[in-house]
Automatic annotation (TrEMBL), chain A:
GO molecular function: carboxy-lyase activity
Name of the molecule in the record: Phosphonopyruvate decarboxylase
SUPFAM superfamilies for this protein: Thiamin diphosphate-binding fold (THDP-binding)
Keyword terms of this UniProt record: Decarboxylase, Lyase
CDD domains: TPP_PYR_POX_like
Family annotation (InterPro entries): THDP-binding, TPP_dependent_decarboxylase
Coiled coil feature spans: none
Organism expressing this protein natively: Bradyrhizobium quebecense
Positions of transmembrane segments: none
UniProtKB/TrEMBL annotation, chain B:
Organism: Bradyrhizobium quebecense
Pfam families in the record: TPP_enzyme_C
Domain Thiamine pyrophosphate enzyme TPP-binding: 43-148
Designated name of the protein: Aldehyde dehydrogenase
GO biological process: small molecule metabolic process
Length: 185, 197
């Protein structure tokens, strides 16, 4: 049986997921929710390994928006990790955050922009900033691994101190190209 | 398959569920569930959803994880829970002992003109919850069942639990809670002792 296997390339030498993790820890983030995502895999592992962070796998992205609202009601700071392909799923639930001025911090790894080989990822990737902006979510970009701490820190202040909804779009160039190989079993 | 024909009065059921609520934190789902919870008695630890269809159980999960020493009750309808059906799987992965979900099930989408819902067409929410990995489920059709469920809410190690509560499908006069989301949020957090900025 032929199977397509996916391998992730290391795009850069800078360990930006660790920089993001440390920044989130500095802001006292207590809940992390995620959908499976190769770009966030290291951060997801770090989060799961941290006993002080409650880490929740979701069946769909908008669950994480609602979870972040409940976390805030109970005094926890939350972060939602997803991929650009799931941003459209969140649009209605983002109205919860806007209506109540709940903080939202979401970190979005981009697909469909840099060296994308899968055309099915391109429409949602292209629409991702606008999908956030139509709901009043502030969009920041993280293009350079060396800027990870500064950008995430700015986003976290804006969210948790300013009661804003903030999405940080992490450039596909930072994630690295997917290598696709055909394997025979 | 047909709609449930059971006749628990939704207002009486929710009122009984919230009697002597003590430190119970309550999230209510969009529509009639919010009116029922409001009608049972206004409280700073009520957070009513006026939107966010499908999100009530997840708001409850985030709250339950943040406040593990407080019992958290989500009161929602069959239509609202069906829209966020995946959240039952997500909740099961966390096994929050302090989280309970009461689904007021009349087998209809009441807010939109009483079309038959999936549960009215045969879906069993308590069976789905069980299959998702929520071990403590019940199917309640009388006030004695409500009373047993209410008594169980305080057991912070007994959840997550989900009760399907069979209610009558009749129209009930609306009782409208406050609609200002920021007010509801600040009131709730203030009640828990967090500073309102």
């Amino acid at each position: 049986m032929d199977q397509i296997a996916v391998h992730q390339d290391d795009a850069t030498g800078t360990d930006w997921p660790v920089a993001i993790y440390r920044t989130l820890k500095n802001f006292g983030v207590a809940q992390v929710s995620y959908v499976p995502d190769a770009g966030h895999s290291k951060l997801i592992k770090l989060s799961h390994a941290d006993a002080d962070i409650k880490t929740t796998v979701l069946t769909t992205e908008e669950e994480g928006v609602a979870l972040s609202a409940g976390a805030w009601l109970g005094g926890d700071r939350a972060v939602l990790l997803m991929q650009s392909s799931g941003v459209g799923n969140c649009v209605n639930m983002l109205s919860l955050m806007a209506s109540c001025r709940f903080p939202l911090l979401t970190l979005v790894t981009m697909r469909g922009e840099w060296a994308e080989f899968n055309p099915w990822q391109i429409p949602m990737g292209r629409a991702t900033p606008q999908a956030f902006e139509i709901m009043g979510t502030t969009v920041l970009r993280l293009e350079n691994p060396d800027d990870a701490e500064e950008v995430i820190s700015a986003a976290a202040s804006l969210a948790y101190d300013g009661d804003q909804q903030v999405a940080v779009l992490i450039s596909q160039r930072m994630i690295g190209r997917k290598k696709w190989t055909r394997e025979t079993h | 398959m047909s709609a449930p024909t059971d006749t628990l009065d939704r207002r009486a059921a929710v009122k009984a569920l919230l009697a002597e609520r003590g430190d119970l934190l309550v999230i209510s789902g969009l529509g009639s569930s919010s009116y029922d919870v409001f009608d049972a008695g206004e409280h700073a630890s009520n957070f009513y959803l006026w939107g966010a269809m499908g999100g009530a159980a997840m708001v409850g999960l985030g709250l339950a994880l943040a406040q593990p020493k407080r019992p958290v009750l989500v009161v929602t309808g069959d239509g609202e829970q069906l829209m966020g059906i995946g959240s039952l799987l997500t909740i099961a992965t966390k096994q929050p002992g302090n989280l309970s979900i009461a689904v007021l099930d009349n087998g209809h989408f009441g807010e939109t003109g009483m079309q038959l819902s999936h549960s009215g067409l045969g879906a069993r929410l308590e069976v789905i919850a069980s299959g998702a990995g929520i071990g403590n489920v019940s199917d309640i059709a009388d006030m004695a069942g409500i009373e047993r469920f209410r008594a169980s809410l305080r057991d912070l190690a007994g959840g997550p639990r989900l009760a399907r509560i069979r209610i009558a499908a009749g129209e009930v006069e609306r009782a409208l809670p406050p609609r200002d989301g920021t007010y509801l949020k600040n009131r709730f957090r203030g009640h828990l002792g967090f500073q309102v900025k």
